[in-house]
């Protein structure tokens, strides 16, 4: 009898540690109305836990948008353009987006996804150095040219523009980041990880993440009206001594209603957190 109880306890403990492997959601319903992709990878056992990849969506390249702030932070810390004490001075312009109208730290830059901070950092790095980092990272299509004919790569390449990558490429990049194999200084890796920390999932797992929001087929004048939304949410989960990587993206399959003002990144973040809270439910 004692042996049976011990066996039961051990079995329950194993089930708890590996709870992320037990939950398989109704992805088609969850992503209804969107072309979507979701991947959850166990970086400790090097196995894909779950993958939603209809019509090979996870291999389709879309603009990286603000997920570029992760590699940009790595570049900036590695090149010593910024450090943990850097303050990005606000120019006094008032912005509608929360958190943008004020001085920024590296952490607030990531938290509020402040584009004007990125646009301060990229000229300091310079186009040649950025392109070298992109090549070293094997980062998507590595196209930092920006909008056609505008020579605005340093300010716009990642904003629904030329720099694109697939979810599978994001996953490979995050694996290198998590495993410390990007060829960067340990300090750059550690400082970047700190500033993308978000908090804890419902049952205590720590998670790190970055959204990205943009527009499919934005016109040459940068007009975003009557356009379908792109959204990203990517990051890491650390649970019971194990590390996981998640990548999710979506694109509207039809124009959103005029009253639907939610950005693509916010939509897919909400979806991703529901999935992650279900996967890591114990």
Defining traits:
282 residues, alpha+beta, Beta-lactamase, six-stranded antiparallel sheet, two-stranded antiparallel sheet, 10 helices, 36% helix, disordered N terminus
Average pLDDT rating: 91
Give the CATH superfamily: DD-peptidase/beta-lactamase superfamily
State the helicity in percent bands: 25-40%
User: Tally of extended strands?
Assistant: 8
What fraction strand?
A: 15-25%
Q: Specify the biggest β-sheet.
A: 6 strands, antiparallel
Shape: globular
Oligomer designation: single chain
The second-level CATH architecture is: 3-Layer(aba) Sandwich
CATH class assignment: Alpha Beta
Strand order of the largest sheet: 2-1-8-7-6-5
What is the radius of gyration? 20 Å
Number of domains: 1
Distance between the first and last residues' Cα: 27 Å
Enter the CATH topology name: Beta-lactamase
**Stretches with pLDDT under 50, minimum 5 residues:** 1-19
Q: Helices and strands: which structural class? A: alpha+beta
In words, what does this structure look like?
The chain is α+β, with helices and mostly antiparallel strands. It has one domain: 3-Layer(aba) Sandwich (Beta-lactamase). It is 36% helix and 20% strand. It contains 10 helices and 8 strands. The protein has helices at 2-17, 27-30, 69-78, 106-112, 115-125, 127-137, 153-156, 167-179, 186-195, 264-279; strands at residues 34-42, 47-52, 62-63, 164-165, 197-200, 206-216, 228-239, 242-252. It has a 6-stranded antiparallel β-sheet. The protein has a two-stranded antiparallel ribbon with strand order 3-4. A hairpin with a 5-residue loop joins strand 5 and strand 6 (206-216). Helix 3 crosses helix 5. The longest helix is centred in the first third of the chain and has 16 residues, at 2-17. 40% of the residues are buried. The model is unreliable at 1-19 (pLDDT under 50).
